[in-house]
Design a protein that fits this description.
It is a single chain. It contains 15 helices and 2 strands. It has a two-stranded antiparallel sheet with strand order 1-2. The chain has 2 domains: 126 residues, no CATH class; 218 residues, Lysozyme. By secondary structure, the protein is mostly helical.
């Protein structure tokens, strides 16, 4: 997949605030503002000072990047990385503060983040953060959009599942789960670039080797797809002609198709067993997103016969989870040295809002909306 060791980081790395993946593991914990995982609890005054400093640093980085963009100055390589690290440090410092002083936990916020992790008073800073990322990771002018980006994801996943001989219920679940992946990877935005990586691009945030691997796998089932759904196959032919020799990752249709074929289609046959173990639809989406974040351990957990009890303890894998906003915020979370898959799924709370929107969009599709 993304690396020879089959470990990658993903859009999960910024599941809350809509930035796609980074290439390789970045230890987001080495920051004075975030504290050291093994350190004792700070006095309340120190925790407050650390949080205030983290907010100031976040404002500073936001202001610097906005000034560079407004002045049309060259941006640094991976211009979103400093913003991301400052945002993580700020949220981590706030969680340490509310751990030290629970009375600091405030009102709900519009991002639906647990108030212990996020101060609703800084919502405008996050709005600015999101706006900067939208500018920095805009796709190229040559990107080939779709008028029905969400329906495309569902249709492709469903057709792939049917071409693999799976029943209607499984194919339906494959479409639903895949729409969730689109929201997890890009917040439902098609053909975007990446402000934190020079490698991963497009609607499913793939690298060139992954995209090519997905193309080859699609070619192997294309005849089966044509027999099952001639109209979808005809659409595929048109999109192939449209993209020609250009980057398939910036044609929404081919990007989604190749991304699904590369990483997820081989697991569609396991959906009945997965849904039996995980009846919650959002949990199912989270598990498939873990195929993006920690593919090898996730496949091992699926083979183990005890998916939810399967424990991750390798420091490198825990590091990848942390770099994808799992066990990331605050010294207590970061002190964890191992976790079961049940604990990991529960810790992926930043994904909940994205997956809820995916389910809402799916209902619109089923109601006949053109989306």
């Amino acid at each position: 997949m993304r690396r020879s060791c089959l470990i990658r980081t993903t859009a999960a790395a910024l599941a809350l605030f809509f930035a796609p993946p980074v290439s390789g593991f970045v230890d987001v914990g080495i920051s004075p503002a975030m504290g050291q995982p093994a350190a004792p609890a700070k006095p309340q005054s120190d925790a407050l000072a650390t949080y205030n400093n983290a907010v100031s640093e976040f404002k500073s980085v936001l202001g610097q990047r906005r000034a560079q963009i407004n002045a049309k100055q060259p941006l640094p390589e991976r211009p979103g990385q400093a913003l991301y690290l400052a945002r993580v440090a700020m949220m981590s410092a706030y969680k340490d503060l509310t751990d030290a002083q629970p009375s600091r936990i405030g009102r709900p916020n519009k991002f639906k983040i647990p108030p212990a992790y996020f101060d609703a008073g800084i919502e405008p800073l996050i709005d600015e953060y999101v706006g900067l990322f939208a500018i920095m990771q805009a796709g190229p002018a040559s990107a080939q959009n779709s008028d029905t980006p969400f329906k495309d994801v569902v249709d492709l996943a469903t057709a792939i599942a049917r071409a693999k001989g799976l029943d209607a219920a499984t194919a339906d679940a494959a479409g639903r789960i895949s729409l969730g992946l689109f929201f997890a990877e890009t917040n439902g935005n098609q053909n975007i670039g990446n402000a934190r990586s020079n490698t991963y691009k497009g609607s499913f945030q793939t690298g060139v080797p992954e995209d090519q691997k997905g193309q080859a796998k699609w070619a192997a089932i294309k005849k089966a797809v044509a027999a099952i759904d001639p109209a979808l196959n005809a659409r595929d032919d048109r999109e192939e002609a449209r993209v020609g020799k250009s980057d398939h990752r910036f044609n929404h249709w081919t990007a989604v198709r190749n991304g699904l074929m590369n990483a997820h289609a081989e697991l569609f046959a396991q959906i009945p067993a997965i849904t039996k173990t995980l009846p919650n639809q959002i949990d199912q989406m989270k598990l498939f997103e873990l195929i993006q974040i920690i593919p090898s351990p996730t496949r091992s957990a699926l083979r183990s016969g005890d998916l939810l009890g399967y424990r991750i303890s390798e420091p490198r894998i825990m590091g990848y989870l942390r770099n994808n906003s799992v066990f990331t915020f605050g010294a207590a979370d970061r002190a964890k040295t191992s976790a079961t898959f049940r604990e990991i799924l529960d810790a992926m709370w930043l994904f909940n809002e994205k997956f809820e929107r995916a389910l809402s969009k799916l209902n619109e599709i089923k109601a006949g909306s053109k989306v």
